[in-house]
Specification:
heterodimer; A: 133 residues; mainly alpha; Cytochrome Bc1 Complex, Chain D, domain 2; 6 helices; globular; B: 374 residues; Fumarate Reductase Cytochrome B subunit; 2 domains; 14 helices; 55% helix; elongated
C-alpha cells in the first residue's frame, strides 16, 4: 500500500471510529459477548444473517431485507408503506443508541423473520455488521 | 289570428330571467355532481347547492318587492283557482296569462320549496354524516343519515318537477302558439287581446339588493361561525405519545375511533402476531395504550367511520379493510393500485385519504397518488 493512501485510510478509520463509537453500542456488544462467551463478533456473519432467507418465521417476512432492502445504507419500507430509516450507522447515527429499543426490535423482528429469538452471537454479529456499514 | 299590441315593458324582468337561468345552472351542477360524479366531488355539489339556495333567497325578496309578474301575491293562487284553471284548460277555454298561470305558479312554488328542503337536508346530512358544514355541531349521525335519505328522495322529486315544468312550458307554448323558452331569455311576450295581466306595481330593486346583501352576509357569517364549532359527537382528546411512538413506528396512526373497544382489546392482547408480524410491547406500554384506545374507541364517537367500521367482519374482526363498508367503497380499485408505491398496502389509508389520521375521511380529501419510483 502506498504511503499517502495508507495514511488516508487510517485517518478515515480513525474518524469513523471516533464518530461511530458510542457507549451504548459498546456496552451492547460487550453484553452480547459476555452472554455468548465469545471475545469478538464477525461483520461477515452479520451480513449473512441480514441477507438470509428463513422459513421458520412469519409468512410475510422471510428475511430482514423484506422491509430493510438489500442495502443497510438504504431507506426501507414497512409492509404498510411507512419509511424505515437506514440501518447502517454511517447513514443513521441514532441507530443502536437506546439499548431498550435495540432489544425490543431484536425480539420482535427475530421472531417475525426467524420464528425465534436471536442468540447473543447473532445479535453481536448483526450489530457489528451494521456498525461497519 | 292574433292582434299585436304596441311595445310594452318585458313580462319577465331582468332579475327573473337571470335568476331562472342561474338556477338552471346551479340545479344542473348539483344534480350532475350528486347523481353521477364520484363522491370526491362533494364540494362542487355543496357549492352548487348553496349557490342555488342563495338565488332562492334573492327570488323570495324579489317575490315580495319585485315587478308585478315576480310577486308571489300576483301569481300564487289558492286551490279553487288552480282547479278552475285546470278545468278551463281541459275545456279548451283557459285564458292566456302573461305572467305565471295558476298551475305554473304551483310548479314554481314546488320547485323553490324543493330546492329549499334540499338545502336543509343537504346541510343536515353533511353535518351529521361528515361532521362538516354549519350543522355539524348539532347533528347526530343517525339524523344525518335520515336527512341524506330524504335529500335523495327530494332530489328525485326535483328532477320530476323539472321535467313537469319543461313539459308544462312546452304544452302552454303549443297551446298559445309562442316560444316560452325564448321569452325567458328576452323577457318579451306578444301582448294579445283577452290576456290575463296584472296591475302595474313599482318594484324596489335597490331595497331588495340591500336586503339581499345584508341577509346573505348575516347568513354567511352565521354559517362560518357554526362551521367552526366543534362537531357533534366527536370528542377531541390529546394524542397519546406512547401510541404515537410505538404504533406509528410501523404504520399510520389509526385513530382509536376506527374500532370498538372490544376489538382494540383483542388486538392489544395478541401483539405477538399483529397482522403477520411480532409487534409485542412491554406490559406498561400495552396498558397505557389500551386505556387510551378504550377511552376514544368507536363506541363513544358519532362519526361515519366509527359507525361503519364498528360493523366488523367476524372472520377478521381486527382488520378495517375486511369490513363490508370498506370492501364496498373500495371495490373498484384494483389490488395493483394498493400494492404499488407510494401506497404499498390497502391498510395505508393516509396514502389516499389525506385526513385519515384525524379519522375524518372527508370525501373531498381523497386522491389516489400516481405510481412513484420507490
Amino acid at each position: 500500500m502506498k504511503k499517502p493512501l495508507a495514511i488516508a485510510t487510517s485517518a478515515a478509520a480513525l474518524f469513523s471510529a471516533v464518530v461511530l463509537a458510542n457507549p451504548v453500542r459498546d456496552s451492547l456488544l460487550a453484553g452480547y459477548a459476555r452472554e455468548a462467551g465469545v471475545s469478538g463478533f464477525s461483520a461477515d456473519a452479520g451480513r449473512s444473517l441480514f441477507l438470509a432467507n428463513f422459513t421458520g418465521g412469519k409468512e410475510a417476512t422471510p428475511s430482514c431485507t423484506t422491509c430493510h432492502t438489500n442495502s443497510p445504507a438504504a431507506q426501507g419500507r414497512t409492509r404498510v408503506g411507512k419509511v424505515i430509516e437506514p440501518m447502517a450507522v454511517s447513514r443513521n447515527g441514532e441507530r443502536y443508541t437506546d439499548a431498550e429499543k435495540v432489544e425490543k426490535w431484536f425480539r420482535r423482528n427475530c421472531n417475525s423473520v426467524l420464528g425465534r429469538e436471536c442468540t447473543a452471537v447473532e445479535k453481536g454479529n448483526f450489530l457489528t455488521f451494521m456498525i461497519s456499514q | 289570428m292574433t292582434e299585436t299590441l304596441p311595445p310594452s315593458p318585458p313580462v319577465w324582468d331582468m332579475f327573473i330571467r337571470a335568476f331562472h337561468w342561474a338556477l338552471v345552472l346551479g340545479v344542473a351542477l348539483a344534480a350532475i355532481s350528486g347523481f353521477f360524479m364520484p363522491v370526491t366531488w362533494i364540494n362542487l355539489h355543496i357549492w352548487a347547492g348553496v349557490s342555488a339556495a342563495a338565488l332562492l333567497l334573492a327570488r323570495v325578496l324579489w317575490g315580495i318587492w319585485g315587478s308585478k309578474n315576480a310577486r308571489f301575491t300576483g301569481f300564487v293562487k289558492g286551490p279553487h283557482e288552480v282547479m278552475a284553471h285546470f278545468k278551463d284548460l281541459r275545456a279548451g277555454k283557459a285564458v292566456r296569462h302573461l305572467g305565471h298561470n295558476p298551475l305554473g305558479a304551483l310548479m314554481i312554488m314546488a320547485l323553490l320549496g324543493t330546492v329549499f328542503l334540499l338545502l336543509i337536508t343537504g346541510l343536515a346530512g353533511l353535518g351529521g354524516v361528515f361532521k362538516a358544514g354549519p350543522l355539524g355541531f348539532a347533528t347526530s349521525y343517525a339524523l344525518g343519515m335520515v336527512a341524506l335519505s330524504v335529500h335523495e328522495i327530494l332530489a328525485i322529486f326535483l328532477m320530476g318537477f323539472v321535467a313537469l315544468h319543461i313539459a308544462g312550458a312546452a304544452y302552454e307554448g303549443l297551446r298559445t302558439r309562442e316560444n316560452l323558452i325564448i321569452s325567458m331569455v328576452t323577457g318579451r311576450k306578444e301582448f294579445r287581446k283577452n290576456d290575463h295581466d296584472l296591475p302595474e306595481v313599482s318594484s324596489r330593486p335597490i331595497w331588495v339588493a340591500m336586503l339581499f346583501g345584508v341577509a346573505l352576509a348575516m347568513l354567511a357569517w352565521a354559517g362560518i361561525w357554526a362551521t367552526a364549532k366543534p362537531p357533534f359527537g366527536v370528542p377531541v382528546g390529546p394524542p397519546n405519545p406512547t401510541y404515537a411512538e410505538e404504533c406509528s413506528a410501523c404504520h399510520m396512526a389509526y385513530a382509536p375511533s376506527l374500532l370498538p373497544a372490544k376489538n382494540w382489546g383483542t388486538m392489544m392482547g395478541q401483539l405477538d402476531d399483529h397482522f403477520g408480524e411480532d409487534a409485542s410491547l412491554g406490559q406498561a406500554a400495552i396498558d397505557e395504550i389500551t386505556t387510551w384506545l378504550f377511552k376514544n374507541a368507536a363506541d363513544s364517537v358519532d362519526t361515519k367511520p366509527a359507525h361503519v367500521f364498528s360493523r366488523t367482519n367476524p372472520a377478521s374482526p381486527l382488520a378495517i379493510t375486511k369490513t363490508q363498508f370498506w370492501q364496498n367503497t373500495h371495490r373498484n380499485i384494483p389490488d395493483a393500485v394498493f400494492n404499488r408505491p407510494p401506497i404499498y398496502d390497502n391498510g395505508n389509508c393516509v396514502a389516499c385519504h389525506s385526513d385519515a389520521e384525524s379519522a375524518a375521511f372527508y370525501p373531498a380529501n381523497i386522491s389516489i397518488p400516481k405510481e412513484t419510483i420507490p
